[in-house]
Amino acid sequence: METQRLPISNGMDFLKDLWGFFRTRKKFWLLPAIIVLIVVGAIIVFGGSTALAPFVYTVF
Amino acid sequence: MLEKSAPPIRILGISAYYHDSAAVLVVDGKAVAAAHEERFTRKKHDACFPKNAVAYVLAEYGLAIDDLNAIAFYDKPFLKFERLLETYHMLAPRGLKSFFMSMPVWVKEKLFMRRNIWKGLEKATGGKITKRPPLLFPEHHLSHAASAFYPSPFSKAVILTVDGVGEWATTTICAGDGKNISILKEMRFPHSLGLLYSAFTYYCGFKVNSGEYKLMGLAPYGRKGSKCVASFKEKILGELISLKEDGSITLNMSYFTFATSDRTCDDRKWQILFGIPPRSAESSLTQEHSDMALAIQEVIEDIMVTLAKTAKKITNADNLCLAGGVALNCVANARIRQANIFKNVWVQPAAGDAGGALGAALAGYHIWLDKEREVRNGDNDEMSGSYLGPEFSSINTERVIRKYGASAKKYENFENLANDAAGFIADGQVVGWMQGRMEWGPRSLGNRSILADPRNPEMQKKLNLKIKQREGFRPFAPSVLEEDAAKYFETDKQSPYMLFTVPVAKGRRKALPPESLPLFERLYTSRSDIPAVTHLDYSARIQTVSKKTNEKYWKLINFFKEKTGYGILINTSFNVRGEPIVCTPEDAYRCFMRTEMDYLVIGNFVFNKKNQPEFSNEMFNLKLNELD
């Protein structure tokens, strides 16, 4: 019988962990910094380096 | 009808992504298999996901991921990330470069630890995970505390964990009682004994995270009680740190840069303070750097003793358990033992971050699953002598013989083999010795060891330069029959894991050379009738060998005793500088062939160097190791 592979953890795991972190640590002032880092990280990871270009043009 | 027993509870512990990755399998609260990833990848202090170590520990019990009750990772990545962000925020704009260097790794990888772990586990097991056990993340220092307390022979103890940094904590005092561990006191980043010692490691020309034990080995070359050492100590205690009565410290961060860069300290300010420049790696050692090593060593020892006294004051415990990287400082451990604060002191043999994998798994068993703990072995711990790694059959050795056209004599009887090997050592030969399961922790304990005669005054030089290919100043440790330890050393206690130094017995000592002599002339002056294992301050980092724990090794030493009257050998790890300790018979044969070792024993095979084919780097596909 073929075994079914489970998908590698998804974004929900990360969001759950992030929510758990804020709930216990209550350091909400870190939230903007983390969001910015994650968004930039996501652009780099999922879009590749060229995807950064439109954002850079918009900013400058 | 037979009563059906409860199925065993299996927990996999993992440490990774910083340094010294490792994996441990805990079954019903006992470590049954454990290994460092570096032993498989042959990359010292390898920090990558320990897929080989995971594959090994699961294979040792024929398990798949689906068979596990839980998987425990040794720290909390989000809490570590919080510490990084807060530190950068607090010290901004300093550390901007370091921030931009470290953040990509975090936002791409480390924050998604669950994903990384599952990916790593799929690689380790060939991609067949059908059921995901819960993934646990105990705190870094809880993992250390658990690794120190649960395998110890005590039902109650106070636990002291001291290292560089975990999430926020750098030192903790915890109470261990049965299955419970509670944190009583902690010291927080950036104030850290481990990072303080690392800063001196760097300044004296050694690599951070690997050269700390070299600094400890260098300290006895310092001039004890001299003005220079006193002045260094005064500057450390007056300028670099502020020491409180309870042993906690505050670092003067204007002298340290580890929070905002990949360097540990401000060279310019240190040079002004101490009056000596940082020693560059591999340059010759100076007396001043040795004095500096002694100064920081004495400061660390004093602080460790004070912390132990505080732990005693808070808990009034009889027993102390130690873990964390600083607990590998066997001289400081010995000072704690000598201070007679506690009846018993026990140190986790893998006290560094690798040991966190064991602690995480044990915390999962006793804290998360709430399983009772019983001390089962009386005075003995639950570490099985720390022989928890892979073992290889004679088939593997035969393959190596065929592959390299090697020549070896096969023995049918172990007694004959051990008797012959003891004879080689007594004749001044150096023997590589590989038997049974590989050691867990940074020390070779007689299953992956290079052995030699400690009576030979030339042996330290020969081993350091011709065999280990390492710095000439470094001392060697002895393995001594447990029952004979008091004949050679001032001790009545066991030291099975080489985690305590003891003084050589007074009757065996010879006069020390004058301190005015150059460093290496002092080194090569005989200091006792076992000179190769007597350090410059008459100390030795001993391993007491018990027949019960490692019968083969005990027998070998006993044969040596029958031939020479000495139940003691030099035991150094089976590797060359920059290389992890050997794991497989092939690793052992390669290491044997590239050094001037005379004999190699693997299981029941003995290799004589004179009978081996000519050696070349190409033949073994060897690259030069990066020096550590």
Question: What oligomeric assembly is this protein in?
Answer: heterodimer
Total number of distinct structural domains of chain B: 3
Rounded to the nearest angstrom, the radius of gyration of chain A is 17 Å
Largest sheet of chain A: none
In terms of DSSP E residues, the strand content of chain A is under 5%
Q: In one word, what is the shape of chain A?
A: flat
Number of strands of chain B: 22
Poorly predicted ranges of chain A (pLDDT <50, ≥5 residues)?
A: 1-5
Average pLDDT confidence of chain B is 94
Widest beta sheet: strand line-up of chain B: 13-22-21-14-15-20-16-19
Query: Cα distance, first to last residue of chain A?
Result: 57 Å
Uncertain stretches of 5 or more adjacent residues of chain B: none
Summarize the main sheet of chain B. 8 strands, mixed
> Which architecture of the largest domain in chain B would the CATH scheme give at its second level?
Alpha-Beta Complex
Q: DSSP helix count of chain B?
A: 20
Number of DSSP helical runs of chain A = 3
* Broad structural category of chain B: alpha/beta
Query: Which fold does the CATH topology of the largest domain in chain B refer to?
Result: DHBP synthase
Assigned CATH superfamily of the largest domain in chain B: Carbamoyltransferase, C-terminal domain
The structure class of chain A reads mainly alpha
Q: In whole angstroms, how far apart are the ends of chain B?
A: 60 Å
